[in-house]
Amino acid sequence: MSMATRNDLSASDPWGGYDITDDYWRSRYYILADRGYTLRDHFCPDKQPTTRNSSRPWNDVPDGIDARIPGGKLVIVRRMSTDSQELSLLLKFSQPEMRSAPGNLCVPVYAVFEDPDDPSSTFVVTPHLFMVYQLQWRNLDDILNYISRVLEGLVFFHSHGISNVLPCCPDPDFPVRFDLSTIVYNGDWNAVNPLRSLARPNYTFFERNYYWMRDTVPFYLFHLHHCRIETSIRDQESSSPPAYSPPGKNPTSPLPAPSTRAAMTPGMKSDLRSVSQALILEQYTNVSDVFFGLDFLRQFRQDLESENPPDALTALRRFRELHYSRSWLKRRFWFLG
């Protein structure tokens, strides 16, 4: 790596408000290509770039770049510090025994390899995730199951001593995303202009660039960069939530009843506030009628935002009770906003 690149703040501190520079990714184009990850033509050293060091609106991780693997599937390649806490957490929660655990919303890691020119940097390949607003909910059950799955994720991470999973600040966007590969076939998305978001080749002005929710759509945290390790909290395997149940059905197994209230740290309380202020509140705009909407969660939201909110497991239990207190008619038929 050249000295100019090493001293470039955009390259050395991408989470400080900067994207890694285009020049850096151009210098790594063939390293990634040899591994089977093809960047956009804009980053090929043999071609004239359309612009220099522009912002990349299609990608929410400043240390990452979108790439294609053979067959056309989109992935994200992130350049991370080899000794970073986030890399350690990603690898920990991507182990086979962790990957199958209920509530594990850690984004899957497809591959990990060092930069041959800079051992202090490691490349991590993950799915290309998209913002939840691009999903078209079918009914109230879809929204409630989405919220439930995020709460299950908090139970999982908090039981492993990890908090600040859903930071409202400094990250302005809610960090939960969905994997579009379960909906869109390879090749349906076409990365053409590096200055613009991804778009379908057959997209027209009159089409909606949304996709209908499906029961199999997986949700993940697209990064763990702001997570905090709570050294005073030990793993509580008994607090893991049961497996996700299909929409329209009550959970097939009951939630465990904790003998004592779990210790709540500031980071854990912040996560629960984020569920209310970001996750639930953003869904209010999707509902145009209070009778079919989310107003029945008002007290639940107030509890999450209180000075002494319930722990994640208790919150999940209360939420599921509220969820299935709605009649089948209210959950399955509603008015769109």
UniProtKB/TrEMBL annotation:
<feature type="region of interest" description="Disordered">
    <location>
        <begin position="233"/>
        <end position="266"/>
    </location>
</feature>
<protein>
    <recommendedName>
        <fullName>Protein kinase domain-containing protein</fullName>
    </recommendedName>
</protein>
<feature type="compositionally biased region" description="Pro residues">
    <location>
        <begin position="243"/>
        <end position="257"/>
    </location>
</feature>
